[in-house]
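Tutorial, part two.
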Amino acid sequence: MKTLINIKSIAVLAVLLSILISCNNQEKETEKTATNDKIQKVEVVKPKQRSFTAEVMITGTARPNQIVKLYAMEGGMLMQMRKDIGDKVRQGENIAVLENPELQQQQLKWQAETNAKKANYERLNKVYEKTPALTNI
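Running the prediction step on this input gives:
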């Protein structure tokens, strides 16, 4: 009877041991597949210069290199636009022509004053040339 109990207990222990071993193996296999799924295989190559044979059409939005707000230093009416949106512009180029009647009047006034002073200078210069002893400079 003792041998029968020993055989039964050995059989039960063998079954339990095989169940434990099989459960343990499944956990290791799932861990291996999980780590294999996480690792991505990447092929590393050195860069080579090649030319493209096909055209690539891409739609998108191009952002400008620099955005500048322009303000006229003087008011007036816009007479001529020399550049349009998207045109390349260099520093110092005229973009637009403004007409300001107030500035034109001021320019005419200054020009008249300059002409009057120039005429006075020429008159005094002629007097000096004719009679240098009478004029004091």
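The longest helix spans residues 2-38. In part three we will examine how such features are distributed along the chain.
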